[in-house]
Amino acid sequence: MKKCVALVLSLICVLGLVGCNKKSMNYIISNEPNITGVVEEVGENSILIYIQNDGYPYGADCSVSLDVENKDGLYSPITVGDEVVVYYNGSIAESDPLQISTVYAITLKTPADRNVNDQS
């Protein structure tokens, strides 16, 4: 009986530790790779950005998943023309357009001119 209780308590501790794996925004911003780009399209599950980082892949289109691991790290609403910073795991799929699937956070760097967009 004691072994059973010890096993159950051990499982509870392990499962509790697994749930504590969420990275804070401060950690993400300080430690994760990022790219900067301008939003060209907003879809239901992803956005298309035009990358403006120095070096590769400057000037390329990139599809970015909106399935953000840190839900506090997704500003809303994302609008065409916004300049955003995408924090991700460092892996960009070499496709056309490029793709980022593992996204930790998306933050707003420079908002689009909302007045211009509203008049269109």
Brief summary:
With 120 residues, this protein is α+β, with helices and mostly antiparallel strands.
Question: In words, what does this structure look like?
Answer:
By secondary structure, the chain is of the alpha+beta class. Helices cover 25% and strands 31% of the residues. It has helices at residues 2-18, 25-31, 114-119, and strands spanning 34-42, 46-51, 61-65, 83-88, 98-100, 103-110. Strands 5-3-2-1-4-6 form a 6-stranded mixed beta sheet, with helices on one face. The longest helix is centred in the first third of the chain and has 17 residues, at 2-18. 15% of the residues are buried.
Strand order of the largest sheet: 5-3-2-1-4-6
Instruction: Report Rg.
Output: 19 Å
Q: Helix-strand pattern, N to C?
A: HHEEEEEEH
How many helices does DSSP assign? Answer: 3
Runs in which pLDDT lies below 50 for 5 or more consecutive residues are: none
- Distance from N terminus to C terminus (CA atoms, Å) equals 72 Å
**Portion in strands:** 25-35%
Average of per-residue pLDDT values: 83
Biggest pleated-sheet summary: 6 strands, mixed
Helix content: 25-40%
* Number of distinct beta strands: 6
- Name the shape in a single word: elongated
